[in-house]
Amino acid sequence: MSKVLCDTHVLIELYKGNETVFRKMNLIGDKKICISDVTAGELLFGARNKGELEILKNDIKKINCLPINVGISGLAIELISQYALSHRLSLPDALIAATSVVHELPLYTLNKKDFRYLKLNLYG
Fold this sequence. Notes:
This protein is of the alpha/beta class. It has seven helices and four strands, in the order βααβααβααβα. Helix 1 (8-15) packs across helix 2 and helix 3 runs antiparallel to helix 4. It starts with a strand and ends in a 9-residue tail after the last helix.
């Protein structure tokens, strides 16, 4: 299996102890899990206290975090111009989707309806 890009909600559910997500993440394997810089930022933003923030920072260091580059930002802008009005595509979702496309990675998301119309390769 190739690497898999995980969206923010997947990791939130993992931290909540969701067994289904835990099993799928184990199937993917630690070395094949990737996240976008957007997901890293969203996770840190959601920290409820300094202790949680430190745990998240340490966990993020262990994950292959893909930075936003010119190709990703350009594609995200195209996606927003196409789908913001018709599907309410948000900037974070556009950046995550563009990261999936640019790096040719399947996207593991629990919100398939948020990405299905983009014709991405969705994991699971």
